[in-house]
Each structure stands twice: as structure tokens, then as C-alpha cells.
Amino acid sequence: MTKTAIYPGSFDPPTRGHLDLIERASTLFDHLIVGVGVNTTKTPFISNEDRVAALTELVEPFPNVTVETFEGLLVTFARSRDCRILVRGLRAVTDFDYEFRVALANRQLAPEIETAFLLAREEYSFLASSVVREVAMLGGDLSHFVPPVVEKLILAQLSP
Ligand code: ADP
């Protein structure tokens, strides 16, 4: 049986921390779907199309990783892909409370689906998309935080 896992998130923008998690999770499952959550009521920093395009380029080195968008309930998306494993990252204790509640809610909704947590690498444990957005708005160097393809996207977006 093929073990498919979904790594869901906003990826707004994708960071080096996300990429590290994708690389590590790709070795644990037969197929990893990076699920880009699309929220129709909020305007993202980076458009859905650009996030998907950047992630698709970034996962090219990993043949068992694909990128898809989803709208609405994650467990509905997971069921539609015959997936029973959700992967999330834990950076610090502060992530735990939120992740724990979301995982329990998902379990209530879909008891057959498990959430697996991978610990962030130490050097990325401070790294969040919100930090990248803030540094970008303030004109700081993004190269330590995001891969070049994402940096280009952000700079293109910020230039008038
Ligand atoms: P969401 O809005 O769903 O939290 P994010 O894109 O912020 O989406 O994060 C998606 C997942 O990636 C979360 O599980 C988050 O904890 C994890 N993550 C975010 N940044 C990092 C990082 N630097 N290292 C490891 N995991 C991370």
C-alpha cells in the first residue's frame, strides 16, 4: 500500500524551514503532497499561483513530492487523496499548543487520519513566514530565510 502524507500550510511565503521539512518528510513516505491552503477571504502576501509555482520548482529534486492547493477542510482534502498522515512542523513549545488543538480537532473530524510532527532544525527554529514578511517589508536581506526563487518573487512583488 502506498503511504501518502500531506504537509499542509499557508507557505506565505515558503521558507528554508518549510523546505527542510519537505526534504526530511519526503524520505519517510512514498508520496508527499505539499498542500497549499487557499483562503478565499484573505489576500495573501504572495498569490496562490506564485506560491504553488515556487514550491513546484523547489520540490523538483524530490521525485516523490507534489504540490497541490486545497480549499476548505484539510481532512476532506486528505480523504480525497487516500491520505491518512498529516505532517506538521514544531519549532518551539509555542507551536505546540496550537498544533495540539488543530491535531485533536482533525482527529475528531477524521479518526483514521494521524498527525505526525517533525521537529524544526535548530537553525530554522526561529524562522516563520511572518518573520520573512516583516523583514521583506522593511527591506532586509532575505537570503538566509528563503530560497533564491522565493526571494526573487518577493523582490519583484515589492518593487513598484
Ligand atoms: P499554517 O498557516 O498552516 O501554520 P505555515 O506555512 O505557517 O502554515 O506552516 C506550515 C507548517 O510548517 C506548520 O506545521 C509549521 O509549524 C511548519 N513550519 C513553519 N516554519 C517552519 C520551520 N522554520 N521549520 C519547520 N517547520 C516549520
SSE blueprint:
Elements: E1 4-9, H1 16-26, E2 31-37, H2 48-58, E3 65-70, H3 74-80, E4 85-90, H4 93-109, E5 114-119, H5 129-137, H6 148-158
Parallel strand pairs: 1-2, 1-4, 2-3, 4-5
The protein binds adenosine-5'-diphosphate (ADP).
What labels describe this entry?
160 residues; alpha/beta; Rossmann fold; five-stranded parallel sheet; 6 helices; 41% helix; globular; binds adenosine-5'-diphosphate
Explain what you see.
With about 160 residues, the chain is an alpha/beta fold. The chain has a single domain, classed as HUPs (Rossmann fold), CATH 3.40.50.620. About 40% of the residues lie in helices and about 20% in strands. It has a 5-stranded parallel β-sheet with strand order 3-2-1-4-5, sandwiched between helices. The longest helix is centred in the middle third of the chain and has 17 residues. It is globular, with a radius of gyration of 15 Å. Adenosine-5'-diphosphate binds next to helix 1 and strand 4.
